Amino acid sequence: METDTLTIKDIISESLKNSMTYAEYRDLVIKLVEEKSTTGNDKSEALVEYTQLNDRRMRRWDKTGKVAEDLKTKIENFDRKVTWLVISESWCGDAAHIMPIINKAAEVNDNIDYKIVIRDENEALMNQFLTNGGKAVPKLIMLDSETNEVLNTFGPRPTVATNMVKAYKEEHGVITPEFKEDLQRWYNKDKGQSIIEDLVLLLG
């Protein structure tokens, strides 16, 4: 069956069958590091190295990431069963900072089911949720867990980081390696709070 004859709900249902939990995703990344490999179609040396770096980043956030009490209360009060379906790749720097924090938020409330799929293995899904025409990850799709209706989306970056990138591009035309380093420093300094604030807004 061709993609154009499938509805978004069909594509989402198919992707959910291929999805994994955050714990399974972490196990996958650890295994890829051991095998000197990466997710996705491009197995270049650079992306393999990014996967290794991102495993270390995620390990740090898994240990140190916290949900501020006021935001925790807001997440705890959410009473609708939803699925946070996240499209990602192990080599993505933004994903390494964001995905462990999504997990911290999802753990606060049993109504939130956090699932992950790999972008290059779920092209039909990715094509439904492009950012400015590009396949940017991570992309979180919030679904009603019973109907798979799309309720909202988040990503590929928290709002503050998105605005930083936009302003830099407008001034300099392109994203430089120096700016990427600045962005990593911002993630470290922010400690995931901007991500959680955006997720709370997502829940309404």
Q: Could you explain the architecture of this structure?
A:
With 204 residues, this protein is of the alpha+beta class. The chain has one domain: Glutaredoxin. The chain is 54% helix and 12% strand. The protein contains nine helices and four strands. Helix 5 links the parallel strand 1 and strand 2 (112-118). Helix 2 (22-34) crosses helix 3, helix 3 runs parallel beside helix 5 (93-106) and helix 7 runs antiparallel to helix 8. The chain is globular and about 45 Å long. The protein starts with 7 loop residues before the first helix and ends with a helix. InterPro entries: Thioredoxin-like_sf. It comes from Winogradskyella litoriviva.
